[in-house]
User: What shape does this take?
Amino acid sequence: MLEIKNMTYEIQDNGQTRTILDDVSLQIEKGKILVITGPNGSGKSTLAKLLMGIIQPTKGQILLNGQDITALSVTERARSGMGYTFQQPPRFKGITVRKLLEIAAGEKLTEEACCNYLSEVGICAKDYLNREADTSLSGGEMKRIEIATQLIKHSEFTIFDEPEAGIDLWSFSMLVETFNRLKARGDRGLIIISHQERLIKMADDIMVLSDGKITKKGKADVVLNQLHCDKMTYSI
Assistant: This one.
């Protein structure tokens, strides 16, 4: 289980303290999907970075399977079983897609293994293995390659920060299929930050953030009904 207890994150802005996240608590079990949604600027991406250790909380704890990982670095959290995908995946000039997959795996991979992982995210592997993971690839291509690296790592919990950002409709459909397969396997917990209703409907639980505070949290069908009653809209 991954658990956040009473997390607060504050920054200093022109000599004043500004609260980005205010007393946020949540938990997610392995094999479940938690979707975090809410208006832009509500603290969703900040929460993702706190979970992965990219930034440190002002107050609160993060527990992974009962172990306090609050003070662990990004690398230590990755080794403990945490995975993370960026809104905009980083580009790596001079590093091929195959090398990127091998870095994620921590070992040399056969061409067949690389092809298997890339085909899971809808990429024809032989067209990509020797290409550089740089700006010559589209946002949708890099997004799916980044997800393939997470499939290789077999993290217990993986955070996807707006996986739909900057990709076309076909690539988005492939992402939905990938998440459906991951959910069906039940071998990891997924935290998806998204505005997309198709992704929100995949959730076991939904949490809504607004101005750094939790405004709604609970089972997906209950929260979705509340959102629709509130006339909250999403792009599909």
Summary: Residues 115 and 126 are 7 Å apart (CA to CA). The mean pLDDT is 88. The first strand starts at residue 2 and ends at 13.
